[in-house]
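Hi, here's the filled form for the chain we discussed.

Project: internal
Contact: R.S.
Residues: 296
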Amino acid sequence: MITPELIGYIRGEFSKGRTRGEIHSALVADGGWSELDLNEAFRTVIPMQGFGSGAVASKLKPRSSLRKVIFLVVAIGAAGAAVWYFYRIPVVDLFNSSVNNLTELATPTPKAKEAVIPDNTNISKTNTVAVKDCGISAALDFNNPLTYENNTVLTCLGASALLCEDAKAILKDSLFPGIFQISKNQNTDSQNTCNFRLSYPGDSTLVDVTGRKLAGQYISCPVGIVRVLDETKKIPSFTNPNTGNLSKYASQIYFYGILGLFIEQGLDKNKIEASGCSGGYISSVIESYNKTLEKR
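And the returned structure, exactly as it came back:
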């Protein structure tokens, strides 16, 4: 019987340039898989792998910016639909894949100092709460640790997340949500919960694949659900974040909110919302993906 782990492993090996014969030999050597299982698994993978194999091999660079992947979704319509297809490929592929020469095509967004929080946000206005201003940072690049390790803005956000203090920062990103907030929420049972919130400025000009404007779109989730991609294992998985480095911890929150959450939950809106998340960004990601399926 084939498993999601087997499918994920095969796709991951294809993305590394290995042939079917090489992958088959490795799986047979490990033992535990019948020829029937392997044939069924390859039949499942090959149609999907065929969609992007050539493109990935010739046009994608493993070390390029993750930001350029999502740009396809939010900025260039039909071409972006192809990237959401890769949500069904192993998470390592998605994090490490990108497209050449797309930066110049990005739809302009306001400068960080012009970014505003729209009126339709869910931030409580009942009480005036002192919000720590963590400042402004350059955009984060998943594949470049220099953008998120030892970053004073992220260190401020990471400390606020651990202490559950209200804080806010601006990330000067033209593609992803650039307003990064930590907030303490009072539940009806008088227990506090700590949430992170990532949102687009109210005057953003970006749109997703479905044509929906991203201005004011956000995602808000409990900090406690954040997970981190573990690439050290043969089959990638998600583990708990490392809070020892506050700057890196904040980056882990950010990357999980814009992408990791959707991968871990299989783009299932019910599962995502059941984990305590809300916001229009969730629907934007999932509906963009569904739009992709319609075009296949």
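Let me know if anything looks off before we file it.
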